[in-house]
Task: structure prediction
Amino acid sequence: MIYFRSYFLRSCKPSKTCYHQVVDQIINRASLCTVKTCESEPPILDSSVNHDKDSPKSEFDSIFLNGEDVPPPVNDVASCNWPKYILDYLDRKKITKLTPIQSYGWPVALANRDMVGVARTGSGKTLAYLLPGLVHIDKRLEENRTYKGPKALVLLPTRELTQQVERVSLDIGHYRPVSLYGGTDRTVQNSILKTTTPELIFATPGRLNDFLDAKVLELKDVTYLVLDEADRMLEMGFEPEIKRIIKRTYREKRQTLMWSATWPDEVKNLAIDFMERPIEIRVGSEEAYANPNIKQSIIFCDMDQKEKKLIDLIREIIGKGDDPSYNRILIFASQKNRVDYLVRLLTSYGHQALGLHGDKPQSSRDYIMDGFRRGDRRIMVATDVASRGIDIQSIKHVISYDMPQVIEDYIHRIGRTGRVEKEGFSYAFFTITDLRLAKDLLEVLKRNNQEIPDRLDEIARRAARELNRKARSFSRFSPTPYYDTNRPGQVYSNFRRRFSCFCAPFRE
Result:
């Protein structure tokens, strides 16, 4: 199903009798009302544009388009008239079927339009912005061969994601990119920048600003700017660094592309500030939506049962005798010391595991990732540093030993499996401390047509009633509630006692 929005504020004349309509139009200046259409009534954004109804999309993907003069989507690789080196790469990787974000995103990016692309993890966003970026560099070099600095810049939130995108670019092999990220010796990256003339830069905001302040690098010639995982960068507090970087680029001729897995208000505001006539392409609902190829299982237990249940689950998975090329297990824990503890625990039971978290030096993180990717170790335990940016197609099982703080992080975790339309399995240990996620988790399971545990349905209803009752009972002068919304991971002892009659569903 395809949705189209239109900018009609310019043609709207305010009337004294329609005050509320005028207010709504001013508030929704960037994106206004949504009109739902169906296959029998083709939507029209512009009379000169013929949108193809048969553009590739899966049955669970709804396409939302928002903007003026949106280019029509493409159905196949050949429709974009790629140069030979890109066609060779796509042929080498046997990429013939386009994902929805590629089908709609490639024409917009190749038309030099600013755009916002919102799609779930594993939907092909990297190629959706990287291939048009290489074409953009080709055109710039045809116009002027004088080197004044990089032509394209891709900002990413983490080292792992930066290295992942760099590997894809090196596999294409046309331009030699330079990656700038923290955790490694700055002098090595500094020498690379001084001895080479990179046209393409992959960087995290913090390390890039270090080189800009040291005047080692200039961005005045950047006309193709990509913000990948923009929501994640804003969550990590990179907004001031991002704004400093954008102001150093060539604003008059800059094409800005913002890519995200979710569409929060912070990303919307950033798009409004730094884009001109942007086109929004959103694949799927604004609500939390997981990959339907992933079978999700919820395991209810007490805190003191989690270790035993984890060992039993690992034994069950290994006992299935999966295909060696698709049998990795990724376990998520909430804290760094918990990661190290679980590695020792699994090793004591004969399951060799690797541990990944932010306190490890970059050399160790690279060694761990390479070993997990090659299959030297089948199991890796990690914090949410691995919830984005890890594109290892051999991960078949994802286990959330500790549930995350918000449901969006759960979506990103399980998105590490089920890549490129493969089948994946997700397991989540749900305890009394995870009541805050019961309702959201239930909605995610329903939207993905997963089996709904009776316990979860009952827990969500009881938790909602109890939290609402508590909220109503607090006086406006009450200093602190039992359940602190500013600290969603904390459940107070009084609140726990109130649920003492309710803990039975967690015990078997």
Residues 454-473 form the longest helix (20 residues). The first strand starts at residue 2 and ends at 5. The radius of gyration is 24 Å.
